Amino acid sequence: MSYYQCQMTAIDELNQAAKYDTHSIIIEGCPGSGKTYLASQFSTMIKESVFVVIDPTVSDIRKMICDTSLISNKTTLCIENLDTGVPAASYAILKVLEEPQPNLYLIITCRNLQRIPATIISRSTVISVSSPTPNDILEYSKQFAADKRAIIMNSMLWPAAKSFQDVSMLFTLPSDKLQYLADLQIKFNQDNISTVMWNLGHYPDNTETNISFVLRMLMIQSTSKEVRSIYLDAVHDIEENRVAPHSVVAKLLLTLKYAV
Amino acid sequence: MRTIQDVGLEILNKTPQSFYVFCGEEYGIKDKYINILRSCYSDYHEVSSVRGIIDTMRTKHFVPLVPALYVVRYDEDFVANVDSTTAKKIASTKIVGTIVCIYEKTASANKFDKYLPEYTVSIDKVDPKFLFKYLTADFSNLSHDVISAVVNTCKDYSRCRQICTALDALENVPELTSDNVASMFGVTQFVSDNNFRHAVASRNFRLCMDCIDEYVGDIGQLYYTILSTMLELEKVVSSKYAQSDLLDYKKQWSIVSIYNMFMQTYNLLKISRSYSLDPINSLIYLCSLLAFKEVPEVK
Question: Which ipTM score applies to this complex?
Answer without folding.
Answer: 0.78
